[in-house]
Amino acid sequence: MMDKPKHLSQKQIDYCMECGLCTGSCPISRELSKFSPRQMIKQVVLDPDGGLEKSREIWACLSCAACSERCPAEIDFPEFISTHRQEARKAGNFPQESHHGILQAVAGLQTRDLKQQRTQWAREAGVFGDTGEYFYFVGCLPFFDVTFRYMDLSPLESARSVLTLLNKMGIEPVISNHERCCGHDALWCGDHATFHKLAEWNLEVIKSSCAKTVLFSCPEGYVTFKKYYPKYFGKLPFEVLHLTEFLAHELSAAGLSFQPSSTAPITYHDPCRLGRLAGIYEAPRQLLKSLPNTDLVEMERNRQNALCCGTSAWMECSSYSKAIQMERMQEAVQTGAQTLITACPKCQIHLACAQGGADSDLKVIDLYTYLRQRLSDSGANGG
Amino acid sequence: MTQTHSTPQSEKTGSITIIGSGIAGIQTALDIANSGFHVDLIDEKANVGGVMAQLDKTFPTNDCSSCMLGPKLAKLANHPNIDILAYTDVLGLEGEPGRFQLTVKKKARAVDPKRCVACNICAEKCPQRVSDPFNLNLNQRKAIYIPYPQAVPLVYTIDKEHCTYFTKGKCRVCEKVCKNKAVIFDQEDEIITLDTGALILAGGFEPFDARLKAEYGYGQWPNVITSLEYERMLSAAGPYQGHIQRLSDGQIPRRIAWVQCVGSRDSQIGNDYCSAVCCMSATKQAMITKEHDGEIDTSIFFIDMRAHGKGFDRFYERSKSENGVRYVRSLISRVIPNPEDDTLSISYVAPGHDPQEETVDLVVLSVGLCANTSSVKLAERLGVSLNEYGFCESDPLDIVATAKPGIYVCGAAQSPKDIPDAVQQGSSAAAQATALLADVRGSNVTAPTIHEERNIRGEEPSIGVFVCHCGINIAGVVDVEAVAGYAGNLPDVKYATDCMFACATDQLQEIKQAIKDHALNRVVVASCTPRTHEPLFRNTLREAGLNPYLFELANIREQDAWVHQAEPQIATHKAKELVRMSVSRARLLEPLFETSYTVVPEALVIGGGLAGLSAAHAFAEQGYKATLVERTAELGGNARTLYYTEDGAQPARYLQDLIQKVENQPLITVCRETQVVSITGSCGDFTATLSQKGQSQTISHGVVVVATGGQEHMPVEYLYGQHPGIITQKEFEKLLVSAPDKARQLKRIAMIQCVGSREPENLYCSRVCCTAAVKNSLKLKTIQPDAQISVLYRDIRTFGFRESHYSEARRQGVRFYRYALEQKPHVTHQDGELGVSVFDAHLQATVQLQADLVVLSAAIRPRPESRELAEAVRLPLDEDGFFMEAHPKLRPLDFAAPGYYLCGLAQGPKFASESIAQAGGAVSRAVTVLSQKEIVAEGMVSRVDAELCRACGECEKACCFEAINVKQGAAGRKQAIVTEALCTGCGVCNVACPTGAASLAHFKDEQINRMIENHSQLNSED
Amino acid sequence: MKVSYYPGCSLEGTARDYAESILGICASLDIQLEEIPDWNCCGATAAHSIDHRASIELAGRTLNLATKLPNSDMLVPCPMCFNRLKTAAWALNQDFANRYAINLQGALPRIWDLANFFATEEMLQSTAKHIKKPLEGLKVVCYYGCMANRPPEITEATDFENPQALDRIMESLGATAIPWPYKTDCCGASQVLSRPDIVSRLVGKLYDMAQRVGAQAIVVSCQMCQANLDMHQEKIGADWKRNFSLPVYYFSELIGLAHNVTGVERWLRRHITDPFTLLKQLNLWNNP
Amino acid sequence: MPQNTLTPDYHFLEQVETTGPFQASACYQCRKCTNGCPVTFAMDIYPDAVIRLVILGQRQAVLGCETIWVCAACETCSTRCPNNVKIAELMDCLKEMAVQAGVPSPQPQILALHASFLKNVKRWGRVFETIFLPEYFLRSGELLRKWQTGTWRAEMRLSWQMTRKKRFPMFPKTIKGKNEVRKILARRKQK
Amino acid sequence: MNPTEQPKILAFVCNWCAYAGADLAGVSRIQYPGNVRLIRVMCTGRVNHGFLLKAFLRGADGLLVSG
């Protein structure tokens, strides 16, 4: 066996037993037979210069962690991929960016000192401040809102709902016009330079807001802050909380009341970033169950076993992605639910896109919007 | 072939000569050359293009004229089967139809066309300034010249009348500076004889000499100009770069007046015809003026507004309502200059107003179209008869046929006409000439040479860069050696050099050699614009065994050296950057392969009226099978009741002959009581499903001609249907023919025009009704000279030579009353007596008429079946329900979808003769497809990556050409599939695709991204 | 050179200046004028206005007298007469000529309007030869009026919208003929007695434009125009509240002046608007 | 301009054309005649409308109008007409028709001028301005009008100048063939 | 952007009109600043938002899409 490349840890390759559980768990492998996590690891073990960096497959991984979740050797395959993507980029191998790379370009532009209009929506949606205890990290929703208008989607609705809920709870969070993309996509596209620049901006912005707690509705932002910012920047001077955790904890105390839902059952889709990568499964369920008269049914694959929404980091969207999405939608339909609730804007966009070609009446809705819609008008006004 | 030809097949010549190279001649040449014949295109002028090249914009779309003409010129210049004999005079004709010998004189340009690379250095250095006829002498050019930069052939000519060497024996500067030794002073005229099967006259027109109407002071007062001069003035490429100005002082005019009918509709000077285009042309000019500068007052002084073409009335109304162009129905009598400021005073009386005097800054005389003097001489020499105005006389129904067999005519040489009519007729003349020679099709064409292509798959890019000096054009500003040196250090560049003229034959040879010597697999030339030179270099690659798409041009002349002449450093820097951008793109270029389909050499003609029958018959004459589908049980359509025309032809009789010929023609299958249910497939290979009395059948065919016709509108006003004495114009025509005795009893006739036409809900002119009213009035006058005929009209639109019939009707005492749309006539009916009261817009008084018969000139409407067909076959209709052509100006016979053509009333109202010509033209267009064994789709088409495609359908929604559809793919799942034959390579699907699955070959995202990344030095560190 | 001559009534009366100047220059240029014996009035406006037949027959009678002279050219100084004679010559050759109680009895000489006669290349050369005193510095506009030009199918004029005869003559004399737009605009002579208001408006417009283009004088070849422009200038000036002071010369007078023919002073003295001051200013008039 | 409803008479034009050809029917109403006419300001019906009214047979309207009398016979209209309508000649024809039909001229002094002139020609065979002019002024009532308006002084001054400048000869020239001339002029129907 | 430099303009132009127009400017010797770079496409329908954003990302200060 040759020397393994320096940048790879033991945990990343050496412990592999070639059991194949990873490939067996991988949603992409099921659609694209030439994609095999097991073989990718083996290839690197056998021949570190064997050209994995130049392969197209390096970009096909969803980093959904379905493999690592089950790996008996606890190999962190997403981490393996992330590392190699950085190398691939150096070798001139780039991913097929979806939507003509608009979102990557937007992230790139945010590494500069530029004028943004990130908070315009918030001025119409509620009350917020420049400084305060809570910082609501909105993420890329304003850009998604423009990009996916052609699909009749308004991802910003989610942020508006969050602000409404927080306001009702008596919280006037900081929403900053200077916020930047969290860098999640850059990180997973192997573009560490951009990731670093963005992260530095964000840390500076949050610091100047004096916030003690940063709230995320977006699982990607959450996991990036929670897991990857400390990895590169050390311990953060503020608490990082996902809104589902926060709400599950605080909502009942805030005295908000919700309307009973129609009798139709609902189901919940676990985003990989919130679930397998960050370990939050129960908070959203708890929230949904706390609503009166709610029939939450589970899909066949849920929590740790949940199926990914099919694409990540706005790249390599393909017919396989669609097949995965259709499979997930089918699973949701089979529960008898009429509403599919997601806690991730990208899951929502991807599933809604796939649904464009499907004939189901299933409604895909974002968790926070769902909550807001069910708020009683008579409910206590936290403000 | 059923036709019997007098000459044995072997003796016929598969070549056709076209004399005159305006838009009509160009269209004719392209059609003929694309259907298996050789073409000699002759023009007495040094370059082709005709008047259209001088126009700024064209109505009613206001498209840029030279932008539309440019691609046609490029096709012409590069066509392997067209010889352009510009600067050539016709001397004589011998022989007979099918095998003429035409003697021509190629005049000496004093420039060798093979050596001239059009670098312009000779003209730059030429000391002799000459007023420039292309710009109507508004500015000057040199004595060695090309008329305009896009000229074809792109070869300079010495104007011997002005050249100081030819006039005084001195100078020779051009010869000295020409680096390619192209100037040859003692070059001699060359007399050659061309073997040609048929001749087409397309000599166009000559603008009326406005000096002959001296009352307008043209040539006397500086700010009185002609419409053609104004056209050059508007043109961005014209002498004033598109700035509207007074000639006296260059100031922007605040008020401009157009005077219509200068040299038209004028018996005084012997031009008793309407020039057919000036009303719309002035409207267009006024609109464009308003667009240039909304502050300029524009007034058009006219007699009758002749907006008789498709879309013209809407254009006219738009100019009034949206652009604020003022129209005054009053013909200016004279123009008076004010000596203090060179303004011009005009006085006029508008209907119902007192005399007005106005001062304007510019008067534009809308000069008429006159017979081309040299065409007249030529026609006389060829024995082709001319009408009294000097235009070529042709058959009243078969308007492209002259009295001399084997000689055809098209365009304004036949009568004044606008561009679409000229283009249609050009195609129609092409159809007739090629039908004559159908049995020698393909006998005289050049087969393209096939070069073996090197497979470069798997090779790393290996790029050669050639930086052109273009004499001093580039090298005079840009440090060419430095650019070449810079290029040599760019990634993947294996060879970089500079050269004097990259496009010169010897240099092309060197490029080929370099490809071999350095194993190059990509080539970048930094020289001039790809719009003119890309085909040449691509061909060089092909000859060197490389795929032609592995070539990239960096434009460092037009877009660098010439626009930064005073800043050599900046220009050199920019040249480097342009080269870097091109090289970066070249690294990603891929070989492209053109796909081909076998053509089914049969036609489907939908509609059995005059147009459809003519089309089917023309296909058979060309030797192709045709299926003629008619909805009803009887062939003939409207023409069955078109008994006579104003010029004595008898369409109904012609029709009966035609039906007979069609029925006896073995190549034609006639399907009566049949409908087209659907058409699938693409150009060259369609399958149509027909339904005949409930029975369904499918047929294969390569092209579709839509000729579903139109119908007379059933009036809903003027008491139509409530009194037997109120009939339509068609019914009246029938009465005149079938019951002349009854007609003789008619003493008082009132005709009402525009019934159902030119109203807000039907905002189009039915084109034929004015002539029909005139024709039927004259007919009645021959039956009953005492008949008192009153025609109530809004504008009389007897365009072209039809004007003389209108004049004749007036002379014979037919009374014409103009009414306004707001004050339509009233038909009354009391005690069996019919009365018509009309507010005479001229006198501003109500006139009460009694009538024995009221004749309503009812509009032409599209047939309702057209809509059904449009929906079944997915063909576009215009706002009025007529089929919409691909482009109203230059592609009037084509649908946007390849393989579909249209003709007859289905396209819009027209005369029988025009329908026949259009049918011929549509066939000519279709034969360009049928005559090919296979259709080669352009390599630059969209491709879909099946893995990336998620079948979302965004591409299908975006495509204007229905070239991409989501279907079951080879992988067993749905995906977008491109019909390459339909793909135009616009790339819209590429943009619409969210995943990047659809990508336009040669303009892929990454290819463009790479140029973006390299557009400025800033990014090289990235 | 001998030509037939039809002076017309007014040259025997109010237009004596014109008549005398013609005789003066013809003598100097050796042109013999043979007057048509017993000629009668052409009928003028009055006849064609209210007695069409008479208008043709009156002129027809004179034409028949003209056929009797052997000369191939006939000079008609009065454009009205010229027009009427030409009209009759035309009408009597039409297929409806039998409407008139007169027939043409022989071949007609060529009927010349006087200005056109003097503007032929041959006459211009001959005139140029006799110049003693070029009219340098004199800036004029040439005014042709209606009758010598319109309608062109009668007058056989080709440059009827922008005639050149007088301009050429003036240029040949060394004067400057300024182009202007009113060469053939009507002065309203036929209405001078009945509607002087109309005339004031039409003639005033001519003075105005002549001054605007920088002319110092107006040159005419029609005694009606001359009278109309010369006699009422003061009154029209009052109507227009302007002082025009534009001498109105016959072209024949100016030829005479340039040729230094005796009698010029006598002709000019018959003008109403002062013709001398301008000439003095330009040093073209040395006589007291 | 006629305001009431008019009923066309298709025969009047034929009658007019018997002394033509004026080719009035060829008119396509472009108004070039009117636009070039120097005396429209003095007209009640513009030339184009005169033609139109002739075409529509509005006899009364055209024979009684001022236009035909104030027409200066400058021939600009006929010259520029794109249809060769002999407009000025048509005006003459209408005047003559009006005189013959006894339609009073709205401009009686113009008619008087023509009548005086022809009377003068009839007397001598040529016009003798020395008599013709004063005779016209008397007959037409112009002299009276000039007296009343006070413009007679200027007129007298001009006459005096003319006389002094010898532009009014003392004696008429009588021609030998004056009987022929008288015969020609005798046919005119006197009012 | 360096304030002493001229802004960098990148233009996406249609082969058939705007590119031809730029050629015409050259033919007519109309002088303009040297800070514009043209990218030729066959139709401006080919230009997507990604190109525009990337152009900004790659240092363009102004963009022109003309066709």
Q: Can you lay out the helices and strands and say which pair or pack?
A:
The complex is a heteropentamer of chains A (383), B (1022), C (288), D (191) and E (67).
Chain A lengths: L9 H4 L7 H5 L1 H5 L5 H10 L19 H5 L6 H14 L11 H8 L10 H6 L8 E4 L3 H7 L8 H13 L15 H5 L3 H18 L3 E4 L2 H15 L5 E4 H12 L11 E4 L12 H9 L5 E2 L21 H16 L4 E4 L2 H11 L7 E4 H8 L9
Parallel strand pairs in A: 1-2, 2-3, 4-5, 4-6, 6-7
Chain C lengths: L1 E4 L10 H13 L3 E4 L8 H7 L1 H16 L5 E4 L2 H13 L18 E4 H5 L2 H9 L9 E5 L8 H4 L9 H8 L3 E2 L18 H17 L4 E4 L2 H9 L1 H8 L7 E3 H9 L4 H6 L6 H6 L7
Helix pairs in contact in C: 1-12, 2-3, 3-4, 9-11
Chain D lengths: L11 H6 L14 H5 L10 H9 L3 H5 L3 H4 L5 H5 L6 H15 L6 H17 L4 H12 L1 H8 L2 H13 L13 H9 L5
Helix pairs in contact in D: 8-9, 8-12
Please explain how this structure is put together.
The complex is a heteropentamer of chains A (383), B (1022), C (288), D (191) and E (67). Chain A has a 4-stranded parallel beta sheet, with helices on both faces. A 3-stranded parallel beta sheet of chain A has the order 1-2-3. Chain A is an alpha/beta fold. In chain A, helix 17 links the parallel strand 6 and strand 7. In chain B, 27% of the residues lie in helices and 24% in strands. Chain B has 26 helices and 52 strands. The longest helix of chain B has 19 residues. Chain B starts with 14 loop residues before the first strand and ends in a 9-residue tail after the last helix. Chain D has 12 helices and no strands. Chain D has 2 domains: 90 residues, no CATH class; 79 residues, no CATH class. Chain D has 191 residues and is mainly α. With 67 residues, chain E is α/β, with parallel strands linked by helices. In chain E, 28% of the residues lie in helices and 25% in strands. A 3-stranded parallel beta sheet of chain E has the order 2-1-3, with helices on both faces. In chain E, strand 1, helix 1 and strand 2 form a beta-alpha-beta unit. The mean pLDDT of chain E is 88. Chains in contact: A-B, A-E, B-C, B-D, B-E, C-D. The interface between C and D is large, with 56 and 62 residues.
Which band does the percent of strand residues of chain B land in? 15-25%
CATH C-level name of the largest domain in chain B: Alpha Beta
Q: How does the overall form of chain D come out from the CA principal axes?
A: globular
Element pattern of chain D in H and E: HHHHHHHHHHHH
Give the strand tally of chain B.
52
Mean pLDDT of chain D: 89
Number of helices of chain B: 26
Uncertain residue segments of chain B = 1-7, 1018-1022
Strand content of chain D: under 5%
Mean model confidence by pLDDT of chain B: 93
Cα-based radius of gyration of chain B, to the nearest Å: 31 Å
Give the helix level of chain D as a range of percent: 55-70%
CATH topology of the largest domain in chain B: FAD/NAD(P)-binding domain
Main beta sheet of chain B: 5 strands, parallel
Separation of the first and last Cα atoms of chain D? 28 Å
How many structural domains of chain D?
2
How many domain modules of chain B?
A: 7
CATH architecture of the largest domain in chain B: 3-Layer(bba) Sandwich
Largest interface: C-D, 56 and 62 residues
